[in-house]
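Title: Prediction job returns without error message
Component: structure pipeline
Severity: low
Priority: P3
Assignee: unassigned

Description:
Job completed but the reporter wants confirmation the result is attached to the right record. Sequence as submitted:
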Amino acid sequence: MLLLCALAWLVVTRAALASEYRGVVTFGGLPVPGAVVTASQGGKKIVALTDMRGVYAFGDLPDGRWTISIEMMAFESQKMDVAIAPGGPMAAFELKLMTLEQIRSSMKPVAGVITPVPQFKGVPAAGPETATDDMKEKAADGMLINGSVNNAATSKYTLAQAFGNNRNGGKTLYNGGIGFNLDNSVLDAQPYSLSGAPVSKASYNRFTGLFTLGGPIKIPHLLRNGPNFFVGYQWTRDRDASTLPALVPTALQRSGDFTQTLDASGNPIVLTGYPGGKVPVSGPALKLLKLYPSPNLVGSARYNYQTPIVSNTHQDSLQSRLNKQIGRKDNVFGGFSFQSSRSSAPNLFAFIDTTDVLGLIANVNWSHRFSPRLGTTLGYQFSRLSTKAVPYWENRTNISGDAGITGNNQDPMNWGPPTLSFSSGVSGLTDGQAAFNRNRTEGISPSIQWTHRGHTLSGGVDFRRQEYNYLSQQNPRGWFTFTGATTGNAVADFLVGVPATSALNTGNPDKYLRESVYDAYFTDDWRVSPQFTLQAGVRWEYGAPMTELKNRLVNLDIASGFTAVRQIVAGTPVGPLTGQTYPDSLVKPDKTHVQPRVGLSWRPIPGSSLVVRAGYGIYADTSVYQSSTLQLAQQAPFAKSLSVQNSAACPLTLANGFSPCSTTTANTFAVDPNFRVGYAQTWNVSAQKDLPGSLQGTLSYLGIKGTRGTQEFFPNSYAIGGAATGAPVGFAYLTSNGNSTREQGQVQLRRRLHNGLTASLQYTYSKSIDDDSSLGGQGPVAPGVTTTASSSNVAIAQDWRNLRGERARSTFDQRHLLNATAQYTTGQGIGGHTLLSGWRGAAYKEWTVQTTLVYGSGLPETPLYPLALPGTGYTGNLRPSMTGASVTAAPAGYFLNPAAYTAPAAGQFGNAGRDSITGPNSFSLNASAARTFRLDARFNLDARVDVTNVLNHVTYSAWTTVYGSTLFGSPAATSPMRSLQTTVRLRF
């Protein structure tokens, strides 16, 4: 999780989660301070104010298409459709004065929008602070509330520091702050026990410190009018604890005695070939068994072992920015950021792995105004991310070698046990993979903006060069899966040393992937009339298929019908199997993505608050190549790759299970050379209207149609009990024939801030369907990386001849979602005791209390039949058959009914649908209380307490859905129990 967070924060690529976006607002060439800038995308709105230089900044806008609108009293509103991406252009808005008639018609009780005080978990952006995502449209409340100014610094609607009557009383030009966030186990609730046994609360502590400072750089007698700067530093020291339940082999099972072992139905198991219920224990199994802890629970219906897990995370982050206005027409600005994370985390077996992440981002930008209506911006961006992962056994002990296991990678860097996976519910043996990866991105982004009459025209181009340098391997120690195919019990199969499948992918550890990304765009924001605005634009985007610096990519040239295959290596001639020619990427480029976008805003009744908005756009996903190219870069002849199923032709044992089999291909993965980039068409319409009682109602609809999504399947595979085709097997094939749809309706009722109270209620009904492996399985799966016993969302199709049978609910298809938020700030409005004075007023006023309720229906999960797909050496994508019994008619203590499923008939695939089980409902109720204590004219102390899961309600996050497992139908995990965090910040 830490690595994902670091990637999202640091990597400036198309796959990045968020980017900085800045712009400038002027009138007659002069900056306009205090203008309200709103970034909107669908139902989401984020707000900022321009500073004294007319500059606004959004520090972490999610990448994608946003609408930026500018509002300022007595000026005409401005709006622009922009693409938020790393290194995006800096927008420029030139305001126009309203006529007297326009001013009169636009007068309303509610004025502009105020930026909120940010949360203190992260370093705030420089300049105007950006609203957090959870505000959504609540930020539409204005500077004037019932005729009085809201200055509660703890409120989400407060004025920014140094603006208006909230200005610091001192003469200093500098603003800063220092604070901390603390969470300690003493104040948190007891963790929930999945095993049913008592859980002791382990000691932990989470601490985050924060320091910020900003202002002009002035050096007496040397630099009088230096640039404005901002610097923020954050340090995090977390020690987290949790309790992990598990099912481990019993003392009798370790000796080979299964006479007291029960199956999933509670009946004594009958071992195949061992009528006495006892099996011999092989030497490799005996060695690996020593890594398993002994059971320490008695009487639990599901688990027999429980242990506390304590992990440590140290993180340091720095953000800095400089901005310098040069004359009236030029502005130079840039920034530098870094983040360093060091973490260690044990697993069930007390293997402590460490991960170090270091990321750097730097950017410099120059903007020039040729005239009040014409301007240009040129930007350069650089980022670097380094990740080093050290597994517990690296350079410590050669577990595989000592156990007599051969064929896998046993270099000191990759010492450790192979991964073991059991279908019966016994916890799999695993450890992390060694890695030292360095990624780098450089980009340049010129753009131009021109305002002419009612049109605001903008256009530009972007270029990025991306480098991914890997020193890691996909599966160097190998993977064994045990399903009970030999003895009738997965653990017994392990003891006798006969796995159902084995997988390995090792060799060629250093890989150097390269990619160039281009785009060009043009947008026209046309204010047709005061009641109607039209936005139209087009974007061309091209991400070149990745290449490997030393031409070590390997694909398969495949004959029609998958009747024959031939290995192709980048940079070498290809034989006459299909007669195709291949570029160095082995995937042909797709340069056809011209993406039109159009949007409108219409006030159909002049003078009415009713506003109708609609839009349509096409969005391409040009970041699809990295995962597949990485798999192409670690295959024979440069690496040893195999995915084998135990059979008479390919007998497997623990000692000799990583040997290639002549009946399967040497390559385990291939990509359609005509692979095409997927795209999504989106359309939306909404209507918003003010209602009596300070209410505002919004109805909206969103539709999405995805085309050319990824699909992954095993050619020439067949059902259990079926007949082999004799064609090449053992490799997964990735194509771009997937499709997806999403329909969403939403209704929102919001109460504007009145007498200190604001609230919102939002209900969303949606339905998402796909046969897209990236959507349905959350990303392509590398062959050999077998699905674990607790997984329920798979990416590789069950039946390659019936890909439409994979069409089902998307894994994120949450049919119902309810969000409710209420916030009360004391001492506002007549009804809020604004005139209360004395010690009562001092104690009562300026408290802000907020509560948030989120309730949603369960997410889909897939029932799994844990046997190997014949001809593939892959376990994890087969499904059982339905019996007709209700899935929800579960026995006591469970949530799913195993009698609803049965093993598929011989030669047939299971008819249970993918994602056909609905998981547990989601529920959360959080609250917070905050206040600002004004120490003097220059210093303010902010204090805040946040409580998550206020009711300490147990919420399960998923079910175990592996048919035949003793854990089937039981909760797989829970959401955290009640936690209390305290934040204190001193601002000056």
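Comment from assignee: result matches the submitted record. Residues 1-18, 103-170, 777-793 have pLDDT under 50 and may be disordered.
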